Amino acid sequence: MKSHARVVVVGGGVMGAGLLYHLAQEGWTDIALIEKGELTSGSTWHAAGQCPHFNGSLNMTKVHVYGTELYPRLEALTGHAVSWHGCGGLRLALTEEEVNWFKYVHGISKLAGYEAHILGPNEIRSYHPFLETFGVKAAFLTVRDGHVAPADITNAMAAGARQLGAEVHRRTRVTDIKRLPSGEWQVITDKGNIICEHVVNSAGSYCDVVGAWTGHSVPIANMLHHYLITEPVEELIALKPELPVVRDPYSHSYLREETNGILVGPYETQTAHVCWNGKPPAWDFESELIAPELDRLTPWLERAAERFPLFAKAGLKNVISGAITHTPDGTYLSGPAPGPRNYWLHCGASIGICQGGGAGKYLAQWMVHGQSEINMREFDPRRFGSWADAEYTARVAVNDYHHMYHCLKPGEQHEVGRDLRKSSLHEKLKAQGAQFSQIFGWERARWYDPSGTGEVFSFKRSNWWGPVREEALAVRERVGLMDLSTFSKFDVRGRDAHAFLERICANRIASRDGGIVLGHLLTPAGFIESEITVTRLAGDHFYVLSAAAAQLHDLDQLHWRLSDQEQVVIEDITDRFGCLVLAGPKSRDVLEACTFADLSNRALPWLTARTTEVAGVQGVRLLRVNYVGELGYELHVPMARMPEVFNALMAAGRTFGITLFGTYAMNSLRMEKAYRGWGSELTSEIDMFEGSMERFIRLDKEDFIGRAASLGHKQRGERIKLVYMSVDAADADVLGNEPVYHGDRLVGLTTSGAFGHAVGQSLAFGYVEPKLARAGERFEILILDRRRPAQIIAEPAYDPSNSRLKG
Ligand SMILES: Cc1cc2nc3c(=O)[nH]c(=O)nc-3n(C[C@H](O)[C@H](O)[C@H](O)COP(=O)(O)OP(=O)(O)OC[C@H]3O[C@@H](n4cnc5c(N)ncnc54)[C@H](O)[C@@H]3O)c2cc1C
Fold first, then answer.
1. How, if at all, do strands 4-10 and 192-201 pair?
2. What Rg value do the Cα atoms of the chain yield, rounded?
3. Whose CA is nearest to atom 19 of ligand 1?
């Protein structure tokens, strides 16, 4: 074993091998993988090997599609035999909402470039003559996905990496990892140590144990999962070609052919639990099965037999029962762990055979080039904070397993693992009918339900539509109040705070106390990493705000960009302050009744701030800024004192018809103003010019991270261009990731959308070919499988001159 390597990957399952292969492909060959047993001897060896195309997320779909394109070619690429079965798949829908889901995913299939068709119930048997179609409303047919032998692809990828110079050490156990003063990592094994620049935790079921050595809390639970294989069945021996893999919400199972027998894998909906009583597996656990629990499967197997009667008459040959890693949101962890640089997580996969190739490719790009060609936010481990502790993770992972075949509609979330982070107004808002959703552990009101029935989740406009309209119009016509305490909040202080922020932001930082600017942190390659609002409280004190979900991500970005020479202290004060958004033409009147501060345009113009007293509460950071495009304020209030300020504003607002509003209304209002969103319009896939953010990038500044690359991008021209569109929508608005057509040509995709209630118009953002990004240009957007006319509008649909918010 060598003493130094650029990268050490811990774990030789499909995830570790997939990364090793792609690091080598990207040109990093001074790399080593360490595996305590044999390659695949963790979860990988006993997986059923299905590799589906169907997925509700565009980025995840790209991961899946890449795998299904790579695996059939791996033998030719590496010389290692790979058994790939491109039998296709059939996913069944039993409800109208599942059919809507299929329609949405059908749009994603066009963007990701895989062949899919939605079949009516009568068409299904021509693809699968043995399937009973009772209760089925539709099927989603995927033509070119299938299943693969997990050991084949893992060994092939490891072999391919070795051919390029990577080392693979089998039967070598990593026993500890330490961070050295140099910033490198020391990987300690039972066969010697390696010092490396980057270490990757790809330790499968052990990833939380391995993470704990360096103080990283890794939110995974090991779930016990089974599948059964029958003896060969006469009807299938005779059948050619192979049947497609079926995914059936009635039996909550996958059902497919396996060596002329039938393979059935149920995801039980009530009885699942974590393995080994929640403890990690023993270090010598290797290529073993866990004792099966067939009783808990029985009801689902009976249903599987109703769906696929051949299964009932076949003799049982094999039961496979083993551990699958699950994260609370069912998506694997791939990216930097929070904290010191170059500790990467690449684990937590529950569909890892399918995902191992693509996950490895995109993480390798991120490690080698500083960013990946796809948006990695949904894989980034920093989407979970310390609130995702072991108890939360186990509870939610079990629930996620139970919902494996459940269609989660827009807005729908797990009901367990809730109420982790709450603002001090939570109970008050709940009493007003707040419908909460969870964001980075916080509970945040989506809308207020006056009927008390709760949200009917749907891909279409639903029972929230009317109340959200009232909330949005109240903000436009009178005054609205919103609890937006979920903001991530940082104090940046010190002698060099101003120079530091100038160096990391594309925009110019305010030169006067009280000034507010919108700033973007760019990658060195000039793409959008973060969006922050910077308020200068004093020459050496700045208040930095960013998205709730970006708390750990942006804290890392701030720390990682700080040089040793700069005297700056960065403090995460997210939990210390709550935030109330008071907005609407009457907001000044309401606030004036609660503070002695001068709120006139002269004293507190748009985009300025001051620290003041409101409703008897000192130290309120009052920012004249908002995301809804009205005269309005953000009041950043010490969290414990929020109720006093809230009560005073509500009391003063009563005569003006003050109304509580939530994030659904905020989304509608920001769409009317054409305000972009971080994570949807603004991602690390695009530059400032493509995102039409020219007015926030100051290329005339001496220097900032990403400036040189941005100059290059300006010269190169845009590859795609953000456009703002009105949409002739019917009963469903744009959600994001719908295809955009120009005539018959696919020319782009949407990023987000909403109905603008004040302008009476459905609105959407999207990226299209630059030559089509002209005001008035007409397109069609595929919304739930129907093409809806859309047209580029040149200006914000509401108040393009900004007269309202400056009023
Ligand atoms: C019954 C069943 C059916 C499944 N079916 C499918 C399917 O059809 N499709 C699909 O996509 N997925 C399926 N899966 C899931 C799939 O198996 C996993 O998602 C995938 O194998 C995870 O790969 P991994 O590399 O993260 O973990 P693993 O394969 O567990 O690899 C981790 C490796 O790290 C090694 N390791 C851990 N700690 C150390 C250490 N300290 N030092 C050295 N080495 C260490 C372990 O020995 C292990 O080999 C199934 C799983 C099960 C159990």
1. parallel
2. 27
3. 352
Q: Are 401 and 393 in contact (CB under 8 A)?
A: no
Q: What's the 305 CA to ligand 1 centre distance in angstroms?
A: 29
Q: Where are the alpha helices (DSSP H) in 594-753?
A: 642-653, 663-672, 707-716
Location of structure tokens 């720390």: 559
Query: How do residues 53-109 score in pLDDT, each as one tens digit?
Result: 999 999 999 999 999 999 999 999 999 999 999 999 999 999 999 999 999 999 999
Alpha-carbon span 673 to 8, nearest angstrom? 48
Q: How far is the CA of 303 from the centre of ligand 1 (A)?
A: 28
Q: How far is the CA of 14 from the centre of ligand 1 (A)?
A: 7
Among all chains, which residue has been given the structure tokens 């299905």? 50
For 323, phi then psi, to 5°, come to -90, 135
Burial class of residue 769 (count of CB atoms within 10 Å of its CB; 0-12, 13-18, 19+): middle
Do 740 and 783 form a contact (C-beta atoms < 8 A)?
Answer: no
DSSP state string for 748-798: EEEEEEEEETTTTEEEEEEEE-GGG--TT-EEEEEETTEEEEEEE-SS-SS
Q: What is the pTM of this model?
A: 0.97
With the CA atoms of 232, 238, 240 and 245 taken in that order, what torsion angle do they form, in degrees rounded to the nearest 10? -30
Question: Ligand 1 pocket check: which of 213, 324, 326, 400 to mutate, most ligand atoms within 8 Å of Cβ?
Answer: 324
Whether the predicted pLDDT of 321 surpasses 90: yes
- Pocket test residue of 201, 325, 353 for ligand 1, highest count of atoms within 8 A of CB: 353
pLDDT in tens, 331-364: 999 999 999 999 999 999 999 999 999 999 999 9
Q: What is the DSSP string of 198-218?
A: EEEE--GGGHHHHHHTTT---
The string of pLDDT tens digits covering residues 213-234 is 999 999 999 999 999 999 999 9
Measured CA to CA, the distance from residue 567 to residue 505 in angstroms comes to 17
Read off the tokens for 566.
């700069």
Q: What gap in Å lies between CA 663 and CA 667, rounded to an integer?
A: 6
CB-based pocket (< 6 A), ligand 1 = 10-16, 34-37, 41-44, 46-50, 173-174, 202-206, 210, 225, 227, 320, 322-324, 347, 349-354
Residue 240 in this model has a pLDDT that exceeds 90: no
Q: Whose CA is nearest to atom 2 of ligand 1?
A: 47
Residue-wise DSSP of 83-116: -EE---EEEEE-SHHHHHHHHHHHHHHHHHT--E
pLDDT single digits (tens) 425-465: 999 999 999 999 999 999 999 999 999 999 999 999 999 99
3-class state of residue 152 by DSSP: helix
The confidence band for 702, taking pLDDT boundaries of 50, 70 and 90, is: confident
